[in-house]
Structures are given as C-alpha cells and as structure tokens.
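**User:** Here is a favour to ask of a fellow structure person. Please take any protein you like and set down a full record of it. No explanation is needed for now; the record alone will do.

**Assistant:**
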Amino acid sequence: MKPDPFASLIKRFFADFLPVQRNLSAHTVSSYRDTFRLLLQFISEHYRTSIDALGMEHFSPETTLAFLDHLERSRGNTVRTRNNRLAALRSFARFALAESAPDFLPAAQRLLSIPVKKTDKPQMGFLTREEVTAILSATGDTAAGQRDHLLFTVLYNTGARISEALALRPQDIRGRSLQLHGKGRKTRLVPLWPQTLRRLRRWCQIHALRPDQPVFTNTRGAPLGRSGAAFRLALAVRKAAAQHCHSLRSRNITLHTFRHTTAMHLLQSGVPLEVIALWLGHERPFTTHLYVEADIKLKADCLRRLQPLTPPVCTRQRRGSHLLAFLEAL
C-alpha cells in the first residue's frame, strides 16, 4: 500500500523537524501535538470521514479558518489560544514548503497568509504582600496543604512559571539558589530566601526524595499537574477571602499571578529592570517593561483617588476695610 504523503509529512514534522532540527522542548512539541489532534478530529467530523482517510485536499485554508473559529465559538478558547494554535499550523506550513511537498504547496502558501487575530492586552494583576500572606496561611496543615504552601512560596520567591516549578527536582537546588528549566530548554539560577531554602530541603528530606524525583507530587505519588495546582490555589484563595482577606473575593487569581506579583514587588523595591528580566528569564526587554507600565498605571489610579488641594480663591480687597485689616493683623 502506497504511504499517504500527508500522514508522512506530519510524522516527519513531529519525529524529526520539531525535536531534532529545531530542538524544541517537550512542552512545545506537546502543545503542537494537541493542536493537530484537535485539527484532525475537527476535519474528520467536518468531512464525515475517518482520520486515516484524510489527505492533502482536506487541509485547506478554508478548513483551517473554520477550525480556528470552532476553537473560539464551540470550545470557548481565548484569542490567545487561537493564535497559539495558528502558530503551530503555520510552522507546519513552513516545514511543508521547505520539504517541497508539491501537493501541499498552494495550501501552505495560503495558510501562511492567515493573519494573527488581534487581542486586547489584559490588565496585569498582582497581589499585595497581605494577600500573598493570606493565601499562604489558608493552605492548611495537612500534607497536601504543606505541599501547597511550599509550592506557592517557591512561585512567589522565584517568579517561576508554573511549568518550571512543577518540573523541580532536588538536584535543582544549587547552594542557596534554585535552577529553573525555562522555555526553549533555557536554564537560569534564582536566589532563594533562607526560609524557603530550609523548607525546600526539609521537604525533600522528609519524603526521602532521590535527586531526580519530582518535588511536588499528588496524593497518588505522581507528579502534580498544572490543573491540580490550579485547583488547590483556588481552594486557598476562596478560604482566604472568606476568612479575613476580603480583597480577594472579586479577584481572578491564577498560578501565573504569583509571577506578576514577584516582578512587581521587585520593581517597587527598586530592583533594576535588567535584573528583573534575568530573574524571570525574559528574552525581550519589552516583556519586562510591561511591569513598569502596570506600576505607573497603579500610581495614576491612586492619584486620581487623592483629591487635589483646592487653591484659595483670591478676591480683590476693598480699600479702607477696617474688618479685613483687623483680621490680617491677628
């Protein structure tokens, strides 16, 4: 049976191009894989045919646009997620052009012309020190609560992405610092507060973790996932809001909020932007500069709440006013 060129192209894209030629991280490859899994399922349902029967003729720009619209309308994905899925498909299109796949060239060229959808820049949210303390205090004394307390402390101390924190191993503790494995296989060292370092080492010691074992696990001993960590954070936020930190009641707090909080608190403490960029692992200065804009906006909002001084109204004095002369002499 003659091999399907479409399936062969996809297999080479995932088996060789992404992990070998581009040396992309496993996380990025998984994201691209999920995009194609969703796309193939959508096309299969759209054309009422099996996935194995799909060919080049089904992978058209019109179908791609319908798929992207399906992500937003039916699956409730954000514009940002839609654009990320499109980026994966455009990467595949460029690969097909480089491979000179003749049956796919016209569709690939038209796919690359699909524009990225403009999205509104969300207002950057971060926590106050009191809110961070309230969330940490609400984690509880159970084994899961102690794990959550350590995880949230590490997130706040390091400004790590949640994927970086969940990937931590005891071997990543380097002296008084923590080695984080970031995007694009890049690593960086971030200093730890003494109390964070003590708790982290104590946690690894109590659970007898080997150097290559994950630090954060679930109740079954498997690595803690992003959704599990998000669920635990939501519980802590609700508990803190109900008990004593009412400012959290109307807030949408996510795991990434800790990263924004670290950056803002560093900025407000006078740490230079260049250092914050290294701390967070930012490649582009523009990304770090967003925290400056957020801080200026916060100060402007505070200024608007402060009533300006009302200058005295100067009125012309009449000559010979004995009463005014008396008052001014007091």
Residues 11 and 118 are 31 Å apart (CA to CA).
